[in-house]
Automatic annotation (TrEMBL), chain A:
Keywords: Signal. This is Uncharacterized protein. It comes from Candidatus Chloroploca asiatica. Residues 1-24 form the signal peptide. The keyword Signal applies.
From TrEMBL, chain B:
Belongs to the ApbE family. Mg(2+) binds at residue 157. One of its GO terms (molecular function) is transferase activity. Keywords: FAD, Flavoprotein, Magnesium, Metal-binding, Transferase. Its cofactor is Mg(2+); Mn(2+). It catalyses: L-threonyl-[protein] + FAD = FMN-L-threonyl-[protein] + AMP + H(+). Magnesium. Can also use manganese. Its EC number is 2.7.1.180. This is FAD:protein FMN transferase. The keyword Nuclease does not apply. SUPFAM superfamilies: ApbE-like.
C-alpha cells in the first residue's frame, strides 16, 4: 500500500507546473500583442515661417488725442498714407430754452 | 374748444369746454337756462324768487324749500362756520341800509336809493350779526327752513360760485371745463393736454395790468374786492362787503384779495373773510390754512401773499 504523504507532494507539484505554464502563456501573449501595436503618430517638427512684422506694428503711429475746443487739429499720419486732418468738433454750449408764458384764458377780479 | 359768454346773476359768465364733440356745444347752449333757473330761486333782486319768499316768511315758522335753495343755504352756512361768522348769508338788511338794494347795474353810483319799502328799519337790525346765522333752523328730513323774525338772507356771491361749480360738474363729462362767473372761476381739472388753466389776476389799481398768472389745475379761484361794487352816500364811499361785526361796509386796508382753494365756494368765502380782516389779520388767518393760496392787494404799498402763493403761479425764468 502506497503512503498518502507522497501522493500529496506529487499533487502540489502538478499544480505548480500548471500555474507556471499559465503565467508563461500570459506573458507570451502580451509580448505578441505588443509587437503588433500601431506605431505612435508623432508630428515631425516643422519649421515655422514667420514674416517680418510690418513697420507700423513695430512703430505704431501715435493715437490721435481729442483736440481741445478751439485749438488747431493735429495731423494724424499712418505710415504709407496721406495725413488726415481731423476737424475739431463744434463747440457745444448749454442752451436752456425757457418755456413760453401761456396766454391767460380769462381774468379773476372783483365781481363784475 | 367751445366757448360761450352771457350775462346772468348781475355778471358776465364765460364757459369754456375743451371738446370737439358736437354734443359739448349742444350742452353749452343750455348753460344760460341753467343759470336763469338758479337765479329765479336764489336772487334777492327778484321779489318772486324762492329766496325772497323765504325772507318774507321770517318769524312765521317752517318753510319747505327746493333742493337748490337747500343746498346753497347749506353751503353758505358752512362758509359762515369756517369764517367764524365773517362771511354770513344774513346781511341783506345791512346791504340795503348801505344803499345796495337793487341790481348793481341799476344802482345810481352817485345817489343810491334810500331803501325800498318793506325793508326793516335800522333799529330793527340785530347787533349780533357775527352769530346771527346760528339762529337759522333747518330740518333735513322735510327740507324745511325757519328764519327768526327780522332776518333777511342774501346769498350773493356764494350763489354765483355755487352756480359756476354746478355748471362745471354738468359739463365735465364732455371735456375739460372752466366757468368764470364774474371773475370767480371754477375748473373741472387740468386742461385736455394735462396743462393747467392760465388765469390772470387783475390789478385793481390798474385794471389793464396783471399782478400774476395763476396756473389752476383744480378747484376754484375767487377775488373779493371793494374796487368795483361801490358807491357814494353823502360824503362816504361805500361798498358791498359788509363787516358783520359793525353792520357796515368793511373798513380795511385791503383793496382786493384773490384766493385759490380746493373749491370755488371755499375760495370765495376765504377771499371775503380776509378782506374784512385786513392785511395783517387776514394774512395770518390765510396762512393758517395751507390748502389756500392768496394774494392780498393793499390800497397803498406792494401786494403781499401767502407762502403757498408762488406754487400756484407762473414763474418768470431767470435770465
Amino acid at each position: 500500500m502506497k503512503k498518502p504523504k507522497a501522493q500529496g507532494q506529487r499533487t502540489q507539484g502538478v499544480k505548480l507546473m500548471i500555474s507556471a505554464a499559465a503565467l508563461a502563456a500570459t506573458l507570451g501573449g502580451w509580448a505578441t500583442l505588443s509587437s503588433q501595436a500601431t506605431p505612435e503618430m508623432v508630428a515631425a517638427p516643422v519649421a515655422a515661417v514667420v514674416s517680418a512684422p510690418p513697420a507700423w506694428l513695430l512703430n505704431p503711429p501715435p493715437i490721435p488725442t481729442l483736440q481741445a475746443i478751439g485749438t488747431t487739429p493735429a495731423a494724424v499720419q499712418v505710415p504709407g498714407t496721406q495725413p488726415v486732418v481731423v476737424a475739431p468738433a463744434p463747440a457745444l454750449r448749454e442752451v436752456v430754452v425757457a418755456p413760453a408764458r401761456p396766454a391767460p384764458v380769462t381774468t379773476t377780479q372783483s365781481s363784475r | 374748444m367751445v366757448q360761450l359768454t352771457f350775462r346772468a346773476m348781475g355778471s358776465t359768465i364765460l364757459v369754456l369746454v375743451e371738446s370737439a364733440d358736437p354734443a359739448a356745444e349742444q350742452a353749452l347752449r343750455q348753460v344760460p337756462a341753467w343759470f336763469a333757473t338758479w337765479e329765479d330761486a336764489l336772487s334777492r333782486f327778484q321779489v318772486a324768487s324762492e329766496l325772497m319768499q323765504l325772507n318774507q316768511r321770517a318769524g312765521r315758522g317752517w318753510v319747505t324749500v327746493s333742493p337748490v335753495l337747500w343746498e346753497v343755504l347749506d353751503g353758505a352756512l358752512e362758509a359762515a362756520q369756517a369764517t367764524n361768522g365773517l362771511v354770513a348769508p344774513t346781511l341783506l338788511a345791512h346791504l340795503v341800509e348801505a344803499g345796495y338794494d337793487r341790481d348793481f347795474a341799476s344802482l345810481s353810483v352817485e345817489r343810491p336809493s334810500p331803501g325800498a319799502n318793506g325793508w326793516p328799519q335800522k333799529d330793527q337790525l340785530s347787533a349780533q350779526n357775527i352769530a346771527f346765522w346760528r339762529l337759522i333752523e333747518r330740518n333735513p328730513t322735510t327740507r324745511a327752513v325757519a328764519l327768526p323774525a327780522g332776518m333777511l338772507l342774501d346769498l350773493g356771491g356764494f350763489a354765483k360760485g355755487w352756480a359756476a361749480t354746478q355748471a362745471v360738474r354738468r359739463l365735465a363729462d364732455y371735456g375739460a371745463t372752466l366757468v368764470d362767473a364774474g371773475g370767480d372761476i371754477a375748473v373741472s381739472g387740468p386742461r385736455r393736454d394735462g396743462s393747467p388753466w392760465p388765469i390772470a389776476v387783475a390789478d385793481p389799481r390798474q385794471p389793464d395790468h396783471e399782478l400774476a398768472l395763476v396756473l389752476l389745475t383744480k378747484g376754484g379761484l375767487a377775488t373779493s374786492g371793494r374796487d368795483y361794487r361801490r358807491w357814494r352816500k353823502g360824503a362816504d364811499l361805500l361798498h358791498h362787503i359788509i363787516d358783520p361785526r359793525t353792520g357796515k361796509p368793511a373798513t380795511s386796508d385791503l383793496l382786493s384779495v384773490t384766493v385759490a382753494a380746493p373749491t370755488l365756494e371755499k375760495a370765495e368765502a376765504a377771499a371775503k373773510a380776509a378782506l374784512i380782516l385786513g392785511s395783517e389779520a387776514g394774512l395770518a388767518w390765510l396762512e393758517a390754512q395751507p390748502e389756500l393760496a392768496a394774494l392780498l392787494v393793499l390800497e397803498e404799498n406792494q401786494p403781499i401773499q401767502t407762502t403757498t402763493w408762488t406754487a400756484v403761479c407762473w414763474k418768470e425764468s431767470a435770465s
